[in-house]
């Protein structure tokens, strides 16, 4: 028996990167999966790859009507909804405050918060009645930037901190029927884009040397890929294994927050008068 046998999951932004790996893993664990995806080609590729195990809906996660359409299509296809995964997001490519032109701040804020925070809220509202019906769960993709500085600029970091707040508030409001949790991954190569207001809509995260970056930032000192994060979602979605978790955020970012600043042997010798 697999961990998600007979479960129905809806993933926003399931067309590439982490979302696509989640679709694959959920299906491997026995689930049927709805996808809400903005990019038509990515949505079509998901449908072509997994056939009737997926229900792929083209739409915008920042629109309530599109979230509602995705919930309805998923329930029409598979009969119910057990878990909503809010996942579609935008990054700010670490743009620091000083490099944000004053006139860019409002539109860039609206784009990033509009998807990363409002998109999750709209998805949760659209799925709420179905999730109550199944006593299901919500999982939001957070980020290391939901806990630590330096994983983005102020716009992205603030948006992901806001997602941690959403997890706690919704967990508080929706218990006992619906569990609400988050997963906070760290870096991984993906097609993650930036806001139009910063002219980053065509720049993909994996145009950067992401493997090297992650290897240097994580004390685990290894590259991490989207599929490496999917087990945390499976655990939280699983009725058999995740039933006691609500209001939690699984921090699985490769340990960036505990990387700290290591003392070199030279500094240690100077400070303590002895070697490491
Ligand atoms: N890549 C990383 O290093 C990293 C690290 C930590 C957290 N995250 C988070 O992981 C999540 C997934 O990002 P990813 O890295 O897999 O990027 P990605 O761009 O590969 O995947 C996001 C998907 O969402 C889709 N999308 C974008 N806007 C949408 C909208 N308005 N409506 C519906 N779909 C939309 C995209 O087309 C894409 O398929 C995001 O929330 C991101 O903040 C990513």
From TrEMBL:
PROSITE patterns: ADH_SHORT (PS00061)
Pfam family for this entry, one: adh_short
Keyword NADP: no
InterPro entries cross-referenced by the UniProt entry: NAD(P)-bd_dom_sf (IPR036291), Sc_DH/Rdtase_CS (IPR020904), SDR_fam (IPR002347)
GO MF annotation: an example: oxidoreductase activity
Keywords: Oxidoreductase
The protein's name: 2,3-dihydroxy-2,3-dihydrophenylpropionate dehydrogenase
